[in-house]
Amino acid sequence: MKILVTVKRIPDPDESLKFAGNAIDTSSSKWVANAFDEYAVETALRMAEHIGNKDRLAEVIVCSVCPKDKRQHVTQFLAMGADRGVIVDADETAMDSQTVAKLVAEVFRREGCDLLVSGKLSQDSEGNEVAQRAAGLLDLPQASFAATLRWDRGANALTVGREVDDGVETKTIPLPAVVSVDLRIVLPHSVKNGATADDHKYSDGARLASLRGITMAKRKKVDVHTPAALGVTPSSHVAVAGVTAPEKRAAGQIVDSAQTLVNKLITEAKVL
Amino acid sequence: MSTPFRVDIDDVEFVFFEQLRAHERLSALPAFAELDRDTYTATFREIKRMAEEVLHPVDRIGDRQGCSLDDEGNVTTPEGYKDAWDRMAEGGWIASSAPVDQGGSGMPRAVAMVCNEVFTAACCAFMMYPGLTAAAGRMVAAFAPDAFRDLVTQKLFTGEWSGTMCLTEAGAGSSVGDNRCKATPSETEDGVFLLEGEKVFISGGDNDLVENIVHLVLARTPGAPEGTKGLSLFLVPKYEFDAEGNLGARNGAKVTTIEHKLGINGSATCVLALGADRPCKSWLVGKERQGIELMFNMMNEARIGVAGQGVATANAAYQYSVQYAAERVQGTALMRTRDGEARRVPIIEHPDVRRMLMTLQVVAATTRAAVYRVAFNEDLAHGLEQTEPKKAEKLRQRMDLLIPVLKAHCTDLSFEMASMAVQVYGGYGFIKEYPVEQLVRDSKVQSIYEGTNGIQAMDLLGRKMRINSGALFMEWMADTQRELQEAGKEGFGSQAAAINRAIGQLGASAMHLGQLAGNRKIDVAFLQAVPFLKTFGYTLLAVEALDQARVAKKLIAQHGEERPLWVRKIAGLDFYINHLLPQAVAWAKTVQSGDESPLDERVFT
After folding, report:
1. Which residue range(s) make up the domain with A25?
2. Which phi-psi region, left, alpha or beta, contains residue B450 (left: φ > 0; alpha: ψ -120 to 50)?
3. How far is it, in rounded angstroms, from Cα B504 to Cα B498?
4. Which residues of B touch A72 (CB under 8 A)?
5. FRET label pair with B7: which of A96, B105, B294, B473, CA 20 to 30 Å apart?
6. Among all residues of B, which ones are annotated catalytic?
């Protein structure tokens, strides 16, 4: 079993936004790993490891589209426990989701993977597209927004609990397949692989890397491809019309009576 | 709502990557050739997560619950400590810089210092257990007999067992030579000594975190002379063990009391009775009567570790204060006090609060830089030992000189900074709902243990300043003055001149004390040991403030933008020069005053 996990670097979401002309200025941003991708890697690792045993049930490969010298996030995921990495050396900020999906799909094909796991979205653009597009390109079944996942190795299938607007939908999909994961996939009992005891309690959240894992990360293999070598021409069919900061909230008004408040809500705010 | 604990990893990275350029210089050493900036960045990220997600959550509960002791001498640590320990051990954080083949994680000392500092800021009481365990491990690795060296080293570095250091007795604290603990060769077992005595202030003397504990104990063998020279070092396990590490009988080292303290309540401070209710078996570490020499080997490491704890407190104090001040609304802007309608502002807008925050910020940043630099120099010294022995020797001597200054000055300042954080919070700082009162209580011990700060000042004056007739100090002055000249060329002329004047006063103070000693007025000279150390300390941190500002200025020019962290460094230098450096000059005045009033026999009769 080979699991490919997509991982992305994003400008630190905790930093305040800076604007340059008609765009967000990321020139001085600190780049960090997308949090949903941490959940995706955690999911893959829980599937791959057999707690209490040394054997691994799957190989976990992290794949990122990024400049090859900006791979800190890949190192981080290798430190967490992924087995190896694949980098598609390109400026991902100039690509649309379809290009990224094509690159991911091509890596998936060439590696002969059985499962693609991705975070449901990246926190910068919140596009929520790559997993679904890749599934389309690969013509594979998909389950997005996974909150729970059970791997039935006998049936070579996954049973996924999906968080949808009106509740949780449970569906079973045959492998190979594509899964995008949501926040609750990293709760202590969300992922079961049929080998680790079903009642095993994982630590809440994505795991911390061990210091040993960090020092070993650099020894792990990372293949670097170019988009051209993967037969994909980067394109962007999406044009940014403009970027503006939300308007600052105006100062509130203090009114002297409930009556005035109601009047203002009717006449000025027009909400009543 | 209390203030959340936050680690400013950007400032850590500024010191490590920009100021020391540690990643580049370490990669030239064979031991760390494989580690690169990405690896260090990943490490710092995990350090921050460990601190914020694993260690800090047990900080307050540990303080409130403390430890408890049952009749059998078993200590129960606070809720959550065991889990935190397991996660630290699992992650390889207990002995981050110990060699990989001994069970450590093979990181540089500079990274271990980052761990020490950041983890201590998160929960200093908890960190006593891994800190002493790693120190005991290093001692065992270096000096224990072949029979159990590798086994015990592994057990300690991986956190399967824990370790303690047992020097102090009720009548032998700073004066370790007054130790009375007896070691008698066993008549029945070869190589075994039976210990009898009582040790006090033993941190982690017992705990429920691990299956076994090894105590390193100073004791006197039959016929050994009085004083420190007669002391030998022994390894005392809580449970005896075989060559595979399987545990056997309970040994006769038993906790009889745990202390109730001002702070670090989660750390069990124990009275340890040796050989009281059953024989206490021990094995010699190193040679007989070599105990104090071995302990001194670890002294620098322990003292710089405590300096790092001071850095931790100062940084925690700053981080809490700056967050609280930005949120706490009180009063109007000073210029609008007469305007009843004026907007109420967060206290961070008040000048005196800004002055306090700036003090906290500058002390946190400069002590961090100074302490990381020493740890980093240790890596360099170690790495250059074979290829450039002279350079390595010079680095070690510089460490010898600066360690007492850093241990004392960083920990005096940390307590002051904790107190200043309470001041920033005002009334709420005094209340237990907020975290800063605990910082005050937890940090006080730093100026006491591992050699009180008075002892550090005596070590500086009586030993370090006298090595090679003051050559170490003269070299430091010369190197620093060269740096000041460089800074002058980079547009920091006035600041460099101010620091140079302080160095002049420091030099004059040293001369003055040298003359007193030459005239056999030893008491009068040592009366000024602490003031002299403070002169040195305030000057030393000024040099770090200058270095940080120089680095920041270059980064601003290089990137064409003024990031807040960099601006803080440049503003921080001016603040340091005007608010803190004058204290160096003032203390120098005290040193050179010739005052002898405390020695007047009539005043304390």
Report:
1. 2-244
2. left
3. 10
4. 38, 41-42
5. B105
6. 450
